[in-house]
Amino acid sequence: MPTILITGANRGIGQALATSYQAAGWKVYAARRYGGAVVPEGTHPVRLDVGDEHSIKALKDQLGDEPIDVLWNNAGVFLDKGKDLAKLPDEDWLESFRVNCVAPIRLAEMLIDNVAASDRRVMAFTSTKMASLARYGQGSIAYRSSKTALNMAVRCLSHDVAPRGISCIMLHPGWVKTDMGGEAADIDVETSVSGMRKTVDQAGPGQQADYNGRFFDYDGSAIDW
Ligand SMILES: NC(=O)c1ccc[n+]([C@@H]2O[C@H](COP(=O)([O-])OP(=O)(O)OC[C@H]3O[C@@H](n4cnc5c(N)ncnc54)[C@H](OP(=O)(O)O)[C@@H]3O)[C@@H](O)[C@H]2O)c1
């Protein structure tokens, strides 16, 4: 039975990922930052505030050397959604970088041996098309810049982990109906998750050239940087 660890698994896309993998028979570590937050039935709840290095270390201590086939860095924040940049405190911009960029890389570093010890050896990172320099838009500068930084960090990480057979994959989930995406979004969480899974579930040590360090839309098409 493969094992996956998903961050931000208590709501939105992360919760739907946890539900989907649990239903498919995987062992699912559903990470949520607050102990009271509910995660899908049948998953293994674990505590993780991705922005807190002590919390990351405590999770590593809990997991020990257990192999993790897929580490899915899903948790994220969009603190400047609909906000005027002039009114955005620097703290919010820095927090966007901490949660959206620094945290996924720190967690990946901490769990690299667990992923390397697994059969599939995949690290997935939920990014966004809004981070694409080729498709740049306007507004949401804190969010966009934090995710663009994530993309670069993951590209660098993908080179570092390649010798260990690990594939780092960046994904755009679509514009999804969640607390973050809002009711007007294009697709529901199930459509997003089933689409992204088609990409992530095909990756593995034998397919590194096709997946490692690449950026995919939820429909499997490649996204320009
Ligand atoms: N929805 C979209 O249209 C869309 C589009 C492109 C990309 N994305 C990306 O997809 C991912 C999931 O988005 P979503 O729409 O599901 O968002 P969401 O509904 O707002 O859920 C965000 C999740 O991240 C968790 N989280 C935030 N900060 C955290 C922290 N410090 N430690 C641990 N968990 C933390 C939240 O936990 P709490 O409940 O504790 O706050 C929650 O579980 C994000 O990375 C987002 O940037 C979403």
From TrEMBL:
It holds the Pfam family adh_short. It comes from the Bacteria. GO terms for molecular function: oxidoreductase activity, acting on the CH-OH group of donors, NAD or NADP as acceptor. PANTHER family: SHORT CHAIN DEHYDROGENASE, SHORT-CHAIN DEHYDROGENASE/REDUCTASE SDR. This is NAD(P)-dependent dehydrogenase (Short-subunit alcohol dehydrogenase family).
